[in-house]
Each structure stands twice: as C-alpha cells, then as structure tokens.
Known about the structure:
Blueprint: H1 9-18, H2 22-28, H3 35-55
InterPro entries: SASP_alpha/beta-type (IPR001448), SASP_sf_alpha/beta (IPR038300)
GO molecular function: double-stranded DNA binding
Protein name: Small acid-soluble spore protein F (Minor alpha/beta-type SASP)
Amino acid sequence: MAKKGLMSNRLKEEISKQLGLYDIVKKEGWGAVSSRDCGNIVRKAIEIAERNMVQGV
Length: 57
C-alpha cells in the first residue's frame, strides 16, 4: 500500500518547473526523477513553507 504524499501534485509540479525537472516528470513520471533531485524538490518546498510562515500566509 502506497503512502499518501504530503505535498500536492500541483506544488511538486510547480517546483519541478522552477528546478528544470518538469520535462522529465511529464515524459517519464516521478519515478524517473533522481533521489538527489527529489531532495532538491523537498528542500525548495521547505523554503516556501518557511517563507509563508514568516509572512503569516
């Protein structure tokens, strides 16, 4: 049974676009993204969350 993700697909797609990974995701799916790049996506999501917390969003 697969775990339910905490990040929405929309957020992951937006971050993958910012990091230049969206073409890989679109063509081959999330399984083709390297673990390093997945870590970069998580790191970026944390930065966004922290920024939103500071701004009170």
